[in-house]
Amino acid sequence: MTSAQAIEVGHLFKLGTKYSEGVGATFLDKDGQAKPIVMGSYGIGTGRLMAAVIEQNHDDKGIIWPISIAPYHIHLVSLGTDAKVVEKAEELYADLQGKGYEILYDDRNESAGVKFNDADLIGIPLRLTVSARNLKQNGVEAKLRWEEKAEIVPFERLHERIDALLS
User: Fold this and answer.
1) Under CATH, what is the fold of the domain 67-166?
2) With helix as H, strand as E and coil as C, how does 92-104 read?
3) Do 162 and 126 touch, CB atoms closer than 8 A?
4) Residues 109-153: pLDDT tens digits?
5) Are the C-beta atoms of 100 and 90 separated by less than 8 Å?
6) How far apart, in whole angstroms, are the C-alpha atoms of residue 134 and residue 15?
7) pTM to 2 decimals?
């Protein structure tokens, strides 16, 4: 016998006739005789599955969702209240949704630090940041949740780069 750590994500219980006999629940066997129904219970818990995924995919900052099961593909972060930044973020949000990406859009009036910390905690695979600094470089900052470094991606190459990062 060996011992190992495990996570219960599903269950199967044989209940026997404990509950069917008390209420008279029966079936007819091949000879036409009434017999109590043998009962069982089984299930796979989605909550347990999510907990198992998070337990296996996290760091000290928060969740790191695997791309294949992430609740969103992209976490779009808009920094500041500058009209050009807000307009470009809204445009990018609509464009990416139109391309079929699932996007969590953070347009809250919070600091960059708060937004970045929340993005790490939530753990969406790809964070795209629109800011006045990035617009001056005619691009958007892209960062995979599990990577340390971010990169500035020019808008004209953004779709191609997103596809590469999420593949």
Assistant:
1) Rossmann fold (3.40.50)
2) HHHHHHHCCCCEE
3) yes
4) 999 999 999 999 999 999 999 999 999 999 999 999 999 999 999
5) no
6) 62
7) 0.79
Domain ranges of the chain: 10-56, 67-166
CB atoms inside a 10 Å sphere around CB 165: 19
Neighbours of 123 (CB within 10 A): 23
How do residues 92-108 score in pLDDT, each as one tens digit?
A: 999 999 999 999 999 99
H/E segment holding residue 153: strand 151-154
CA distance 126 to 112: 16
| Composition of the chain by helix, strand, coil, percent to 5 | 40, 30, 35
